[in-house]
Amino acid sequence: MIAKRTKHLKLGLLPRMDARPRAKGGWTFRYYTYDRKYINLGHDRAEAIKRVLEMERRAPDTGTVAELLREYMASGSFKNELAPRTQDDYIAASKEILERFADMPVDDVKPPHVARYLRVERAKAPVRANREIALLASAFQFGIEHGYATANPCRQVRRNKERPRSRCPSWEEIESFCVTAAKKGPSSHVIGLMAKFIALTGRRRAEFLNLRKTDLGPDGIVVGFAKAKAGDALRRGLIEWTPALRQLFAELAQLDRKARDGKSAIPESMFVFTNRDGQPYTEQGFKALWSKIMGDWVETPGRERFTFHDLRAYYVTVLVGRDENPETHANPATTRRVYDRRRVVKIKGSA
């Protein structure tokens, strides 16, 4: 627990520490034990604090943002209430937050510090900065509820303005991207087929990176929902088979893939989209291959980069254009705001 303020706060003392002025100047530091006895700690403040930390086995970062984040990310609020993808994102975001706030006492963090982080410290990555401050805001809220903090400075600062993406690749672009991927070899070919899979189904990466062969049934493909919160009723989706999906999986099955030794076949796996070890791609591994393929694809003049996220936008745009529900988000308004990238919207007359 972060200690309460003491009358010697200006000296930066820990709870149960006491400081008495010396006749010759300076202080004599003492520790008040739980059985109401004083232990002399000497005249060196730093050494006195170290002794108290050792006696109480407290971490050296007690009272700081570093401790607050550590306690939050070890809590049930973090592990049980957040989706796995959100947890991973927050863990990645903590690096930048700790680099600038780690040693700051929790109560010293004020709205101007948060605003400077958003506008100055992370000016080159404004959208990412919003996600990082979301972590800090959640940690402070946890701190308020558990006695680590008295206020949440993040709540008083507006986030950086985010401009929704408008890029929506065409099916011809997606097809040509897959051709480029196939030319780079079997592993890149798998990434190309994964790109086509999301364009055809609108699923998040987290929803099919671990797709198992047993999820492929006669009626369709069973997938989970990555954005489901802990505690929510378990829901599964069934993607009905289409000729394009059947062709995609047939192409995947025909790939002649070798293990890392370049000779033997990859190990038999329960997963559908696998690396050369027969295991699902990690986020890092997938992103690395995607970046290389995209780099080759955009070398052709006239081509514009698109993200894996833009492929979901393709799917939503196509289905919304047919007046169908894409079932990509729990809130239909969010689906339209983020993913509907139609350049022309049909407007019906009143008569």
Helix-strand blueprint:
Layout: E1 17-21, E2 27-32, E3 38-42, H1 45-56, H2 65-73, H3 76-81, H4 84-101, H5 111-121, H6 126-145, H7 171-183, H8 186-201, E4 220-224, E5 236-240, H9 243-253, H10 283-297, H11 308-321, H12 332-339
Antiparallel strand pairs: 1-2, 2-3, 4-5
Question: Can you offer a commentary on this structure?
Answer:
Keywords: DNA integration, DNA recombination, DNA-binding. This is Integrase family protein. The chain has 351 residues and is mainly α. The protein folds into three domains: 9-56; 65-156, DNA polymerase, domain 1 (Orthogonal Bundle), CATH 1.10.150; 173-339, hpI Integrase, Chain A (Orthogonal Bundle), CATH 1.10.443.10. It contains twelve helices and five strands. The chain has helices at residues 45-56, 65-73, 76-81, 84-101, 111-121, 126-145, 171-183, 186-201, 243-253, 283-297, 308-321, 332-339; strands at 17-21, 27-32, 38-42, 220-224, 236-240. The protein has a three-stranded antiparallel sheet, covered by helices on one side. A two-stranded antiparallel sheet has the order 4-5. Helix 2 packs across helix 6 (126-145), helix 8 (186-201) runs antiparallel to helix 9 and helix 8 (186-201) packs across helix 10. The protein is elongated. The model is unreliable at 1-7 (pLDDT under 50).
